[in-house]
Amino acid sequence: MRRFLPAACLTVCLMAALALAAQELQLPPTVSAGSGFAIATSGSGSATFYLIGPSYTGRREVQLGQEIRVRPQEVRSAGRYLAILRSGGASQSGSFYVVAAKPASLSFLAHPSRIPVGQRGSVIGVAFVFDNWHNLLRRPEDVEFRLATKNAPAAAQSVRTRDGAAWILMNSGSKAGNAQFVAALDGIEQTRVIQQVASDPCHLQIRAERSPRGILVQTAPVRDCSGNPVSDGTVVTFTANGPAGLSTVDVPVKKDIAQVELNIPGPATISVASGVVMGNEVKVGGQP
Amino acid sequence: MKLASVLAVLLVLSVASLAADGPRVQFDTSHIGPRQMEDVTGRNIPRDWGRAWQTLAIAYAQNRPDLLSRYFTGFAQQKLTAGIAAQEKSGVRTRYIDHGHKLAAYFYSPDGGAIELHDTADLEIQVLDGNNLVHSERVTLRYIGLMTPAADHWEVRLLESVPSF
Amino acid sequence: MKLAVLLVLATIALVILGFVFPVHQATTPGIVSGEALPGVGASTNTPEAAVRSLLGDVQARDWNRAYSLLANSNVVPKEAFVHDVSGNYGSLRTFSSLEGSRTRVLNENGDQALVRADMHWSTAVGPIYDVKELKVVQQGGNWKVEWPLEKQPTVPPQVVPVNYLRWDVISRGPEDDWGTQNVDSPRVRIVSMNAVQHGSTLVIVGEVVNEDTVPAFVDINAILIGKNDQNLDQESSFDKIQHTLLPKQVTPYRIDFPGYNLSQVKSVRMDAKAMLVPASADPVIAVLDQHEQTSVLGRKVLSGNLLNESGRIVNIAQVLATYYDSNGKVIWVSDGYVDRALLPQTPEPFAVDMPDSTVGKVQSYRVTVNHYIRQQS
Lengths: 288, 165, 377
Known about the structure:
Chain A has 3 domains: 4-99, Immunoglobulins (Immunoglobulin-like, Sandwich), CATH 2.60.40.10; 105-197, Immunoglobulin-like, CATH 2.60.40; 201-284, Sandwich (Immunoglobulin-like), CATH 2.60.40.1930. Chain A has 1 helix and 24 strands. Chain A has one helix spanning 4-21; strands at residues 30-32, 37-39, 46-52, 57-63, 68-70, 79-87, 90-99, 105-111, 114-116, 123-130, 142-149, 155-160, 165-170, 177-185, 188-197, 201-202, 206-211, 214-219, 223-224, 235-242, 245-252, 259-262, 268-274, 277-284. Chain A is rod-shaped and about 135 Å long. The N and C termini of chain A lie far apart (136 Å). Chain B has one domain (23-162): Nuclear Transport Factor 2, Chain: A, CATH 3.10.450.240. Chain B is α+β, with helices and mostly antiparallel strands. A 5-stranded mixed sheet of chain B has the order 1-2-3-4-5. The radius of gyration of chain C is 26 Å and the shape is globular. The model of chain C is unreliable at 25-33 (pLDDT under 50). Chain C folds into 3 domains: 47-146, NTF2-like, domain 1 (Nuclear Transport Factor 2, Chain: A, Roll); 182-277, Lipoprotein YajI-like (Immunoglobulin-like), CATH 2.60.40; 281-372, Immunoglobulin-like, CATH 2.60.40.3230. By secondary structure, chain C is mainly β. In chain C, 12% of the residues lie in helices and 43% in strands. In chain C, a hairpin with a 2-residue loop joins strand 6 and strand 7 (201-210). At the A-C interface, strand 8, strand 15, strand 20 and strand 21 of A face strand 14 and strand 19 of C.
């Protein structure tokens, strides 16, 4: 009896090992993320099953001859998974890939946040498509990009993704205002706001007249070449050349107009500039 | 005292290894688009990719998800952190021995805010249950990576192993 | 143990060496000490001595004693005198001290004399030089100074509405999702750059414009590239620029490289950094009556008046003057701080140097004003 038991154990172990060695792990080549599946095993006895993936590592005891259930929550992250089955010092292994499931979200990068009107190819949109578990969708999908401002027709274009990414260059509109820049796919939308601002001032014009304190100088409504009023706060530089010397003042535009009262009693030539744009000149006589 | 000294040496070595340049990375930008790669970026991307992999290997070997934050961000950091937490819970560790990468830049966004990369990595992967080696393999694996710029380096925002490019 | 003994012996040896071979204190560069001012209670038996005694009291901040040396104390209130000398309204003068001065009797006639005092003030932003020609009169055997107090124009009480634009900034937070838009940095552009040799200093001057519709905090850096493509040096514009630029505003900049020569330099790499910052379009400061003149010291200056058109006090103003040649090229940028506060609606004179190298070449100029307003709690 004493000689029989060790020999019997050894035989059983050897048989289990042989049973394990006689078969390979039946694994699907790819699995959709979050989808459970079963791994068939044969033989008898207990074994240890290891599953190692990008964001999961698990170890449990299983029975040979029964299916090993891989649970959905164990295969959520896309990538390569190792499955290892060990019994009695022998092991079988295999690998499979988890790939992204159906689209569930978009990461939408839009640039810039502010752009002058009338710029060609200056609005950049890049979209990455992900599934519910933030896995990149590599199969081609059609992403629609739309750029729309109030009171202007929207510009739209569909772009097919390559390895999860789609990109587009669009023109800024001719009207200043907030533009809605949208990336959309299968009912999933992400919106960004692009502020379209007036370009450089165009046809800068001033008029000047005598006032009790000196010379009152005022611009005509300051607009860009598309007729958009420049942003409030845009600096306009008034220069007066008079007998006492040169006088300058930087005045911000308020409600489309910049104005200043210069304390200059004598005759003067007034000119105006904003940024690198020059305006007209006006000559004003001395105080009577 | 001896244990403290050994731990101190290990800490210094791990920091020193982090400070080193990481595994060998060959970088190919011949198929990049739509934006062309700048010289400085062309040097920094492979450097930071290598350092990211080096960090990943150390983080997994030592169960230290805190090390990931320097070179990983977003979904990549979340998934790797979850992976390390899971391996710590299960007692099963994965060790990566990095034999180098062939990295190709695939997509560089027009504003320079994101780069998609294809990486062919030569790796040796060991799985240990406690101190017992249960699996070892040397494999060539393909990865898709997404890197985005941080303050002074590039970070890995996405890292997924794929069956083919 | 042996190491500890060695360290103690080395320390003792070094201390001994320090006493035997002391290091002489180098003179502080850039500060002209002038003549030492006399202490409190000095003699006033000559016109020059009276002025020097007054300035000595000012340096010691002994206002009672200084005021007692005025000949026209019946028309100059003490408070006005003290504010005129020591500053008020948080002006640059309030952060200054009289470092030294030189005096010279210009003419003396019986019981009256005219004494020029060149004063050197040490301020928070560097030295400021002030020149006053003081009339000194003899009263009862002592000479006293007639202090030239400028009468400030009285601004009538009024309400000045402030409705100029103000910008605030909200940036994306650290928790925001990747892809969440952030506000872009402002677009600025360097519109001109010119490298000039000024003595032993290589100077880069030019202008930069804020092309955006939001305010920008701007700084300009320059790197000198040598003949072998090596980086020689790097400097920034520091305070020789109007840092906060409103939309479409243009500022000059100047970057100094002491000790470098144009012949060493192959090229200059320029970099304009711009940051989005909160800002206000108020106050508006007019620069009036700009003209070239020669100062009492015989130097060419560009002078004029600053007029604060807002209703609040501008504590410290810095004037930046850009000089252009006949081709419109920037040939020099000079700056100077006004050590008096700009009171609302009240003109305040300024003068900035025109270097000798620019005389005869300047076709036109433009003056801009940097300002600092102390925040109210």
